[in-house]
Amino acid sequence: MKTEDYCQGEAFQAEKRTVFSTESLPLCAEGQLSRPGDFVSATVGGWGVVAVRDKEGVVRVLRNACRHQNMQVVGTPSGNCETFRCRFHGWTYDLRGRFVSAPPPVAPKDPQSPNLHLASLSSTLGSGLVFFSLAGAAAAIDAGPLPAYGGTLTTEIACNWKVCVEHLLVEHTASADFSFSWPLLALRRAGPVTIMQQVVPHTFLRTRLLTHAFGRPVEESKPAAATIRHVCETLQADRAAGKPAMAGALVDDFHRRLAAAYAKDAAAT
Ligand code: FES
């Protein structure tokens, strides 16, 4: 990886085209959507998406892009609602993403048109998480039986997403107690506890880390998450100064997959 891969938007755009547009990606824990109307929104690799449990109890993933002028409909990271009302001019959608209404001055000519609904993405549930894909059918990981969900902790980190992944991987080798699911999810087991660390690439210099705890209250993960944030922000400064990531089998494999994605993108553009 080069310094600019961690510090500039061009690499992020290449990753958006070749990684985040094609892979199945985790979005949130299913436990974050326990009631109808519960939603979680995020920008994952540059794509605005929202997961929601509809009135029938089905979890869906929608593009968070209004059909009026393509603005972000949902502006809060999580919550509960009856409908989604776009912040900009008031177009309203139901929990399945279907267009409901709009104020008269901005109303569409044909309110029955299916083109007015929020785009629905392929999604699936597995191992306590919600996965989605922008291309093809979404696939979940198989983490085997899990203890009870203990909550999710959100940590905002001022670093490139790859710095965070490298840090999660560098001290580990693949084993029964640790695995990495390309490109964004690390799973760690410690006795009766399973911790999933989900990296959310928000922008090329802003990353959200979701810590999903199974088998213990997530509050117990707060000190570790704060340490990860501090270390990753320090490592980001190191990368900006040209200091490379520490080597390791999992980090090296992560870099190989990224290099392949960059090569594919270069060949296509
Ligand atoms: S962009 Fe959403 S209502 Fe106008």
Instruction: Report the bound ligands by name, code or SMILES.
Output: FE2/S2 (inorganic) cluster
The total count of helices amounts to 5
Distance between the termini: 20 Å
Side-by-side strand order of the widest sheet = 1-10-9-4-3-2-5
Sequence stretches where pLDDT stays below 50 over 5 or more residues? none
C-alpha Rg (nearest Å): 19 Å
Strand-pairing-aware structural class = alpha+beta
Q: What's the mean pLDDT score? A: 96
Helix content: 10-25%
Largest sheet: 7 strands, antiparallel
* 3D shape: globular
State the total count of DSSP E strands: 15
Write the H/E string, N to C: HHEEEEEEEEEEEHEEEEHH
In oligomeric terms, what are we looking at?
A: single chain
Question: What percent of residues are in strands?
Answer: 25-35%
Q: Can you offer a commentary on this structure?
A:
By secondary structure, the protein is of the alpha+beta class. It is 24% helix and 32% strand. It contains 5 helices and 15 strands. α2 crosses α5 and α3 crosses α4. Bound molecules: FE2/S2 (inorganic) cluster. FE2/S2 (inorganic) cluster binds next to loops.
